[in-house]
Amino acid sequence: MITVFVSDIHGNIEALQAVLAVVDTYAPDRIICLGDVVGYGASPNECLDLVRTRCKTVLLGNHDAAASGGPEITRFNIHARVAAEWTSRVLTRENREFLQRLPLTHNGDGFLCVHASPATPRDWEYLLDRFDAEPQFAYFNAPVCFIGHTHQPAIFMADPAGCRSLPVGSLSLDPKRRYIVNVGSVGQPRDRDPRACFVVYHELASRIEYVRVPYPVETAQEKIRAARLPEVLATRLATGE
7 and 185 in contact (C-beta within 8 Å)? Predict the structure, then answer.
């Protein structure tokens, strides 16, 4: 069984299309989206149409919630709020209703999926380091929890001496350990690598693999500017910050 995890697409159809082209080379059994299909980028409906076709499971992210009528928008900074309001105006009725029906969590065979954190999924906590991650292990029992939200790939491992942060890359999972795996972002990476990011989970081998994919950033930027969205949302795509 091969499962691909994508997250934080953020209305970036160029990144999503490039990722799915590479995903297909793995011939996965399923694709799971950990949320935030929309927000920031200028192609929300195009991304939702593709995700609905290709992903077996889709979770709710905070930008998905905000753009479809949730109260999350009140917690956004000005740039995120402007993008969420614009997204809300352009969403088709079908896509808005799809977002409103999305679950916060998904229990797989031996893993948990959530957009932000297993402890309080709709508080949208940021697990940025091992200190943030350590208390989260008390809130799930599965060997692995896959998350997104921070746009930063990360692997945290529970250890008797405390939570450890592991190097991001290809990793064979120790059956005696438990992990939180942040799969990074397809549409707006923030780890200073502008390439789209996703994770392949080789379940029989108990191995995760991070994959980075270049895409036409300039095209995505042009669409953001044409939609008159905040300039920072375009410029940050080139730097991965």
Answer: yes
Residue 161 has pLDDT above 90, yes or no: no
The DSSP 8-state label assigned to residue 17 in this structure reads: H
pTM of structure: 0.97
Q: Which two tokens stand for residue 193?
A: 């690598």
> What's the CA gap between 146 and 182, in Å, rounded?
6
**CB neighbours of 14 closer than 8 A, spacing ≥ 6?**
43, 215, 216, 217, 219, 220
State the sign of the Cα–Cα–Cα–Cα dihedral 192, 144, 101, 51: positive
At 71, the amino acid letter reads: P
Residue 162, pLDDT above cutoff 90: no
The enclosing H or E element of 226 equals: helix 217-226
Strand boundaries in the chain, DSSP class E: 2-6, 30-33, 57-58, 105-107, 111-114, 144-147, 154-157, 164-166, 171-172, 179-182, 196-202, 207-213
Q: Angle between the 44-54 and 93-100 helix axes, to the nearest 10 degrees?
A: 60
| pLDDT tens-digit readout, 179-227 | 999 999 999 999 999 999 999 999 999 999 999 999 999 999 999 999 9
- The set of residues, in sequence order, having a beta carbon less than 8 Å from that of 173 and lying 6+ positions away, is 143, 144, 179, 206, 207, 208
From CA 66, how far away is CA 86, in angstroms rounded? 11
Report the 10 Å Cβ neighbour count for 159: 12
